[in-house]
């Protein structure tokens, strides 16, 4: 039986840019223009510090000049006016003297309308989408801006709530979780890329104190879906990339109880000087690379947070060559 057709695709990933710009004069930082050319740009949320309209405009202008055929963007917990329910409850408290009840409506119109479209940006709300590229790639992507409740910021859910697995899934039943998924992540092999704001539990999710704060239900969904790529941000200190190997199973229950019992290759090493010179950290897991990704057995996980824990834009974007399905 012939192997499915694939095409090598270059993906540039950034997250948690928090209204910063990429200053070309900051020669000692990798996040500076021009960023590397790619087929796809993924921004994993936290475009702003607190969701003001002028911050969104700055984020759009920052991405306007990135050379990518397809630019896909989700929100994060700091992008509070893009969560209309949250903004209705908390917008006045968060925006204080700058509060404008219409800010949420205007923000959504900005990201869904001509302002973002003119920069080549497609804003993704929670759900599954399909896209085609001029290189022949046709891929599915699941997007979600939500993460476990965090200091009363936007796009929250409680840790006992399973937002990513179907209500009839053994994952939710075994964990005694409350199933709340409106748009569950599809089963393998129906999604190629997953982009979320928050990380899965135990995977590039450790805070500066060493605590793992990712979502165990999201990790379970990743084991079920086995996407080629899962990129996220949110936890600045977790910046990095690793290959997660699903081929040796561990019980779902052990994952919930706090174990990170997943067979994982060593985190990809990063040469900081090269990253600064190249304006990115680069990984090749395509069929042209030394160790191609094993579809259905491995997922490349990337925390693409540009900021460090002190909100300094010192981390580089991730640039990945990956095989995607071909038309």
TrEMBL record:
InterPro entries: Calcineurin-like_PHP, Metallo-depent_PP-like, UPF0046_metallophosphoest
Domain Calcineurin-like phosphoesterase: 10-237
Protein's UniProt name: Calcineurin-like phosphoesterase domain-containing protein
Lineage: Eukaryota, Fungi, Dikarya, Ascomycota, Pezizomycotina
Gene3D superfamilies: 3.60.21.10
GO molecular function: hydrolase activity
């Amino acid at each position: 039986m012939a192997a499915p057709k694939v095409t090598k695709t270059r993906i540039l990933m950034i997250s948690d840019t928090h209204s910063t710009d990429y200053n070309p004069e900051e020669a000692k930082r990798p996040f500076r223009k021009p960023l590397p050319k790619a087929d796809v740009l993924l921004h994993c949320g936290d475009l702003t510090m607190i969701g003001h309209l002028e911050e969104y405009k700055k984020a759009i202008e920052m991405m306007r000049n990135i050379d990518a055929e397809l630019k896909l963007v989700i929100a994060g917990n700091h992008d509070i006016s893009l969560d209309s329910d949250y903004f209705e409850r908390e917008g006045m408290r968060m925006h204080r003297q700058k509060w404008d009840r219409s800010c949420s409506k205007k923000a959504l119109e900005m990201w869904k309308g001509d302002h973002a479209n003119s920069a080549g940006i497609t804003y993704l709300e929670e759900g599954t989408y399909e896209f085609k590229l001029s290189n022949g790639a046709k891929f599915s992507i699941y997007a979600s801006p939500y993460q476990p409740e965090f200091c009363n910021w936007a796009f929250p859910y409680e840790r006992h709530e399973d937002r990513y697995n179907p209500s009839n899934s053994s994952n939710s039943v075994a964990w005694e979780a409350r199933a709340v998924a409106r748009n569950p992540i599809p089963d393998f092999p129906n999604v190629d890329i997953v982009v979320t704001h928050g990380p899965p539990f135990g995977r590039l999710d450790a805070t500066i104190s060493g605590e793992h704060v990712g979502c165990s239900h999201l990790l379970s969904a990743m084991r079920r879906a086995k996407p080629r790529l899962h990129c996220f941000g949110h936890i600045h200190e977790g910046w990095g990339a690793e290959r997660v190997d699903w081929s040796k199973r561990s019980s779902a229950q052990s994952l919930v109880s706090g174990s990170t019992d997943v067979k994982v290759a060593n985190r990809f090493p990063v040469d900081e000087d090269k990253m600064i010179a190249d304006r990115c950290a680069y990984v090749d897991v395509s069929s042209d690379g030394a160790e191609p990704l094993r579809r259905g057995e491995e997922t490349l996980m990337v925390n693409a947070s540009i900021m460090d824990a002190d909100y300094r834009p010192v981390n580089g974007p991730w640039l990945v060559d990956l095989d995607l399905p071909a038309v």
